[in-house]
Amino acid sequence: MSQLQPPHLPALESLHPDTRLVHAGTLRSQFGETSEALFLTQGHVYPSAEECEARFTGDSPGFIYARFSNPTVAMFEERMAAMEGAEAARATATGMAAVTAALLSQLKAGDHVVASRALFGSCRYVIEELLPRFGVPSTLVDGTNLDEWRAAVRPETRVFFLESPSNPTLEVIDIKAVADIAHAAGAALVVDNVFATPLWQKPLALGADCVVYSATKHIDGQGRCLGGVILASEDFIQKHVHTFLRQTGPALSPFNAWVLLKALETLPLRIERQTRTAVAVADALAGLPKIERLIYAGRPDHPQAAIIARQMTGGSTLVAFDVAGGKAGAFRFMNALRLVRISNNLGDAKSLITHPATTTHQRFTPEQRAAMGVSEGLVRLSVGLEHPDDLVGDLKQALAQV
Ligand SMILES: *Cc1c(COP(=O)(O)O)cnc(C)c1O
């Protein structure tokens, strides 16, 4: 920071999200570069031993070592915090590193965690298998049932965790109501906001204590690199996250931070367009004879439409539906697609389709999958940047072959 200067900007609070995503967090070197610089360096050198000492005591601001401080990573963190309306952000190597750090950094043996059952498969692993191995038992609940959250609370409950809309069934949880239950129990609420994107839902404003993203998804949005981010109050980051990350090291590469930083400039353009197309796709497919159930968080027939109206400003870029004929029907449909690609990823410029029962949710028993709403015919469509008519045309011609 000693050599890098933030440009003069109006107060961030006076700027719209689109503007913040272009300018917030920028630091310029003495060369006055237009585009944010990529500082691909492990560490820094100091003009004197005295300055080095001052850097370590914190008396002199500046960067030390890329496991916990790098100028390009810092720009990405600042820009994400400005978008989310969070006081502080810390970047991580992947979304799972963000989830794991947000949880582990708050917990110790003897604590208890409550989480919604419909979670990304790896999040389920951390909560259901990893935490209990270290003496932190967990209870999984139907996230849409507030009574189950209340009933799961124990005196030692420290953390609530949820994902909304959930992967892959796009279930929506009342974040404000769950935050109130968590706080009454003396627990903190962590929200995985990947499916809503930073554009359509603000969990901190709804009462959550911490928000995590896989930046691998919409934030990159072009399938290039992995990344994650944890956002919370300065107090929460200092108390739990900062030292944990600094000493355990799941750091984001400066190169990936640079890619993600540049991607934030176009985030609203991409998400608005992909969401508009998702609405068009959902409306075109709903009610077709070979679609047995269609779930989209922007349609009035969504089971939690009233909550969506209160807590989301857009319906996300994901659509889920059951293809007639179970697994065989879903596979035939996916194999017949010519434009939409088969993948496990989401949030990409390219439309991608996933069969959760045989991929992301393969390790669960059929009974566990049924409890999560992951049926054999369910596919999850991540809507990309293609023209809506081309996408609808591809989906319909593939359905005709089921
Ligand atoms: C992808 C994803 C993750 C994990 O992110 P990675 O970057 O792949 O580690 C966590 N939660 C949700 C909801 C996701 O979609």
Automatic annotation (TrEMBL):
Pathway: Amino-acid biosynthesis; L-methionine biosynthesis via de novo pathway; L-homocysteine from O-succinyl-L-homoserine: step 1/1. Pfam families: Cys_Met_Meta_PP. It comes from the Bacteria. It catalyses: O-succinyl-L-homoserine + hydrogen sulfide = L-homocysteine + succinate. It is an enzyme of class 2 (transferase). Its cofactor is pyridoxal 5'-phosphate. The modification N6-(pyridoxal phosphate)lysine is found at K217. GO terms for molecular function: lyase activity. The keyword Transferase applies. Its EC number is 2.5.1.-. Keywords: Amino-acid biosynthesis, Lyase, Methionine biosynthesis, Pyridoxal phosphate, Transferase. Belongs to the trans-sulfuration enzymes family. MetZ subfamily. Catalyzes the formation of L-homocysteine from O-succinyl-L-homoserine (OSHS) and hydrogen sulfide. Homotetramer. This is O-succinylhomoserine sulfhydrylase.
